[in-house]
Design a protein that fits this description.
By secondary structure, the chain is an alpha+beta fold. Helix content is about 30%, strand content about 20%. The chain has a six-stranded antiparallel sheet. The chain is globular and about 55 Å long.
Amino acid sequence: MRLVYVNGKFVPETEAKISIYDSALMFGDMVFEMTRSFNKKQFKLREHLQRLYASINYVHIPLKMSLEEMESVCFETIEKNEPFFDEHDEHRLMINVSRGPLSIYSEVFNGKLEPTVIISDFPLKWTVMGMGRLFDVGINAVIPNQRAVPAELIDPKVKNRSRFHYMMAN
């Protein structure tokens, strides 16, 4: 069974959890990066992590894990999961970071409030399977007047998990 890194531990992906009081769940307050591999080699992982850390700094998440530590855990996640991938599967890493449980719930966590870090790895084919037809025939689309959250509110360079406007566009 594939493993997911959650706050310092590797757990089976079916057991990976965040708190119901996590800022990601309460407010969509989470930044992320997604990377993929080509021939089992991660594509520009360092650059993706630099962008992730720029987002982390922009939204003031007090993450103690260094970029180098994050990179090491990413590679460890891939290594632990490789035995569960088919020979030709490529890796899709999803790296999510939230500020963790909200401070008003600190007594639930004995005052220990740390950012939540989750790194999952699963076969890229799950993501792209069935998309080939879309490249051949295209899709119907409408471009609304407002395409995203205005830049005055959130810098568009910040990759955050709040995608409600995406869902509404569907």
